[in-house]
Design goal:
alpha/beta, Rossmann fold, Hnrnp arginine n-methyltransferase1, 2 domains, 5-stranded parallel beta sheet, 7 helices, 15 strands, binds S-adenosylmethionine
């Protein structure tokens, strides 16, 4: 059992509405269902890490799995999973374990491990570490993971939000120049991409190690007008099983991430992106080479915004120390 914490009806509402949204995510659910149908064979043993409502544990049992272990760290969800399994007539084959999968011990007996712990930024829900542990401790030799890979894709995009005040009550360029260093989640329907997307990096979950930094990602795009580019949209592309993929560009509960850039020169040209997606040193560097000879290079990182604000904080702290004397 996971370490007990105070649970409240408000938490239950939050948890239920989160999982209700996931259960209503048709694109996601169809893709995961297709992947499990391709992977789970009658008689298999299946481990579902981060089982949530229990949807994939129940699907695996209905596909003929002999035994399914549903691991979920949120204790509020244990009865939810048990009820769903009973309702689907597979209560006798789905065992619910309330625990943090990073500390769990189980026999190395599973033919399939499924884990929908893919975050909006791909790796922010810890899928690399969870699947690494699953591979090393739970998956029998020859067993498979769902998903098997997680990749990032990107495309230049029109300004998502020009960062202007509406109505423009005060000048706010100093603020806008800071927010050009802040990645943000965007409403997919409001995102307008300006060139075909490119894969930035791909992590094979059958080999990835959580201690390894993500490699620096590079991509080049052809754009019709640099001035029309407000930033780069980045989203996730999951390889769930052979020939079963799921992208989070639109139509799912995930949202793409928008990386703003400084204004680029007018006219057609080539845009190069270099992206460090490691959270602690996230940075995106863009270069634009206009067909007419214009050039622009820009570096963006939340650390730069911090670099602008931090000296003022230091001055403020020194000032208040002087004031107290
Ligand atoms: C995005 S939800 C997916 C739920 C369900 N599998 C689905 O696809 O609808 C991820 C779930 O994983 C659980 N989770 C995240 N990290 C976990 C961990 N280390 N151990 C156990 N459960 C975890 C969360 O509590 C959450 O319920």
């Amino acid at each position: 059992m996971a370490k007990s914490k105070k649970l409240s009806p408000a938490q239950l509402l939050g948890t239920l509405s989160f999982h209700q949204a996931l259960l209503a995510d048709t694109r996601r659910n169809r893709a995961f269902h297709r992947a499990l149908a391709a992977r789970v064979r009658p008689g298999h043993t299946v481990l579902d890490i981060g089982a949530g409502s229990g949807i994939w544990a129940v699907v695996a049992a209905r596909l003929g799995a002999r035994r399914v272990v549903a691991v979920e760290r949120d204790p509020l969800l244990q009865p939810v999973i048990e009820n769903l399994a009973r309702e689907n007539g597979v209560g006798d084959r789905v065992e619910v374990v309330c625990a943090d999968a990073r500390r769990l011990e189980l026999p190395r007996e599973f033919d399939v491990v499924v884990s929908e712990t893919v975050g909006v930024e791909a790796f922010d829900e810890g899928i690399i570490a969870l699947m690494e542990r699953a591979r090393e401790r739970f998956l029998r030799p020859g067993g498979v993971l769902v998903p098997e890979s997680v990749a990032l894709r990107a495309a230049p995009a029109a300004p998502f939000d020009p960062g202007r005040l509406s109505p423009p009550l005060v000048a706010a360029e100093s603020f806008a120049s800071l927010t050009r260093h802040v990645p943000r989640g965007v409403i997919p329907e409001r995102l307008r991409t300006l060139a075909p997307s490119r894969q930035l990096l791909r992590v094979d979950l059958h080999t990835a190690r959580s201690g390894d930094p993500l490699p620096l990602a590079r991509a080049r795009f052809r754009v019709a007008d640099g001035r029309g580019v407000g930033g780069l949209a980045v989203w996730v592309d999951m390889g769930l099983a052979p020939k079963v993929a799921l992208q989070t560009r639109h139509g799912t509960t995930w949202t793409p991430t928008f990386l703003p850039v400084d204004p680029l020169p007018r006219g057609p040209g080539r845009l190069s992106l270099e992206l460090d997606w490691n959270v602690a040193r996230r940075r995106w560097h863009v270069e634009f080479e206009g067909d007419g000879g214009s050039r622009h290079a820009g570096d963006h990182s939340p650390l730069f915004a911090w670099g602008v604000v931090r000296p003022a904080l230091r001055r403020g702290a020194a000032g208040s120390r002087r004031g107290r004397r």
